[in-house]
# Entry
Amino acid sequence: SSGINAEYGWDSVDTPINRIRSYLTDREWWSELREKDFRAATRSDILKAFREASNTLLPNPLQIFDDTWDELPLHVQAQKAVLVDHLKKYGEHYGLEKYEDAK
# Structure
């Protein structure tokens, strides 16, 4: 094999991935060619997903306070207020345009 596995010597190390690859190859259920094709297709899918994700807004930073409590405890309400004030004062340093409704 080539690539990062060979570069770091992982091809010769007894790992679960290498064991299952050997098992499948011994039974002719897998091959180097199939792996090469799989890696190429998977890489393409992953790069496509990265491109799509990079064009998607991130969740509003204040959502960190959602979905944990029915009612925010007082100390968490205080933390949220501190964050809101901080973002109002220093928001230009955080790239808030990348976040939903956070400008």
